Each structure stands twice: as structure tokens, then as C-alpha cells.
Amino acid sequence: MSCPVFKAVIPAAGFGTRMLPFTKAVPKELIPLVDTPVLQYVVEEAVAAGATDILVIISSGKEALKHHFEPAVELEKRLKESGKTALFDRMLNLNKLAKLTFVYQHELDGLGGAVRLAENFAGTDPCMVLLGDCVMDSFSELPVIGQLLKVYEQYHSSVIALSEVPPEKISSYGIAAGTLINGDILRLHDLVEKPSAADAPGNLAVAARYVFTPGIFSALHKITRGVNNEFQLTDAVKLLMASEAVYGCRISGKRYDLGSIAGFIAANVEFALRRPELQEVLGRQIINILKEKNIL
User: Fold this and answer.
1) More confident call, 261 vs 251
2) Residues 82-130: pLDDT tens digits?
3) How many CB atoms lie within 10 A of CB 113?
4) CA distance linking residue 242 with residue 284, whole number of Å
5) Strand 158-164 and strand 246-250: pairing?
6) Quick one: 29 exposed, middle or buried, by C-beta within 10 A (0-12, 13-18, 19+)?
7) Among 51, 68, 200, 288, which one is most buried in terms of CB atoms within 10 A?
8) Measuring CA to CA, which residue among 241, 37, 197, 113 is closest to residue 27?
């Protein structure tokens, strides 16, 4: 009988150097996707999948992440008094999404080092892990992390989100190797961190979402520093495979990496065009710009 997964961990301690100078003063997880910060999308995905307790791992100077989810009494009062009820309700709902706890990663020693800080929080329970700078758009009725939970409930084992990437992008991701056992589910036997396209075992990239059994923490304590002198989560997952089954799930959805300039701009255009109030005027402006630049 599987244990229900109600705990989620969101690593959000990195500097966001690809988005400097903006991220010098503003955490990359607060970069807006239209009018909503990236981290809020991630938290909402976890909540939609059943998370009630969420641990956000931050670093010094990123206290704004905490403030975003705290009540803003004066702002809420002004919104209510001015009759902006829709915005007032959004602010109240933001305060009630889940029980959020924050812990500091004082040394930025890698994603593995960040997840290891969640050991006491997770205890003997399984937990979701969602990277705080990636928004996932599900193509099914389940959020992407919910698709992984469905696999976890079937196999009672750790599950990693996977998505296909073109050959020119393989070297930017961890690539999984495994045996297809059921539809989009693979039994994994290896992970290769950022291989060349020629050396990669395939084109299935790790896609920023995980569900882990408590065994991941034992593995995290055993690994040594790897690439960039950091504790790599990939190394811990590979070690975990030696003691228990680890599965991969080809997700039905799309990953948006808001940590790069190109990804940020493209995602904002795409999400804005979904808004009826923005679609017509923005679409017209994009067409005019493309014509002016002789692109269209």
C-alpha cells in the first residue's frame, strides 16, 4: 500500500546568473510569466497534485520569495476598499495555497546539496521535488507532477519526469537510459549528465520534476562532489538505482525554462497570447514588429 504524497520540496537557492542584471536584486523565481511569478506557478502545480506541506529552499538575499506568500495587510485592505474584489480574492488565495516553510542553503553546493536539506522535512514520507525556476504546462487533466504521482502509486518507487529533446539540446540536460515497460513508463538503469549527442544513451531528458522515496536521502549522504565541485542530484539517483527501482515517466506536457532570456521571452509571448484580453492587441503588435524587421 503506497503512502499518499503530500509533501513537496522546491529548490530555489540559485543565483540566476543567466538573467543578470535583473536577478542581482530580484530572485529568478520571481521572474514574471505575464503577471504571475514563476515560483507561484510551481507552488500551484504542487498544490493541484495534492501537496499540503511545501518546503522552499532559498539562499541569503532571497527573502522576497517568503514575502510573496505572506499576507500583505495594507495592500489587501486597499484592494478591498477600492472594490477590486477579483485582485483581493487572488491575494487571499495566495496566502492559503499550502503550509509553506523556508530553509536556507548557506553553501550553494548543488541541487543534491539542496535536496539533502529536506531530509528532516520529508522524514519517512515520500516527497515531490519541483525545480523552482521551471514552469510545466500539462497537456492532460493531471499536472505534470501529478502524472509522476500516478506512476508512484502504481510502483511505489521513485519517479523522474522525462521529455524528448532534439539532438542539438541533448548536451544541456541529464539524459536517461532505461527499458520501456508500460506505455510512457521506463525502468531506469542509468542517467548521464549533459552528454554529447553522440555519447548520449537516447534523447529523453530529465525534466525538472521528481517523486522520491526516503531512500534518496541515504544516497545523497553517500555521494561526493562531482561536476562544478557540487553535489549532483543525478549522482544520487544513479546510486539509488543500485538499491531500489527508479522509474521514468515521459510526461504529457511542456517545460518552460524561465532561467534563460530566450526562454523567458518566448514563454511570456505564448502565455500572453492565451489571455483573451491580450490576444488581439499583442498578436497585432507581434505581426507589425515582424513585418518591420522583414522577418514576416
Assistant:
1) 251
2) 999 998 998 888 888 999 999 999 999 999 999 999 999 999 999 999 9
3) 22
4) 55
5) parallel
6) buried
7) 51
8) 37
27 vs 23, 38, 97, 157, CA distance in Å?
A: 5, 10, 20, 33
In angstroms, the CA 293 to CA 289 distance is 6
Cell of 192: 548521464
Burial 225-260 (b: 16+ CB within 10 A, else e): eeeeebbbbbbbbbbbbeeeebbbbbbebebbbbbe
Alpha helices in 14-163 (DSSP H): 38-48, 64-68, 73-81, 85-95, 111-116, 119-122, 144-155
DSSP state of 295: -
Nearest to 184 by CA among 170, 167, 204: 204
* Grid cell in block for residue 93: 488565495
The amino acid present at 83, given as its one-letter code, is: G
* Closest to 11 (Cα-Cα) out of 109, 98, 153: 109
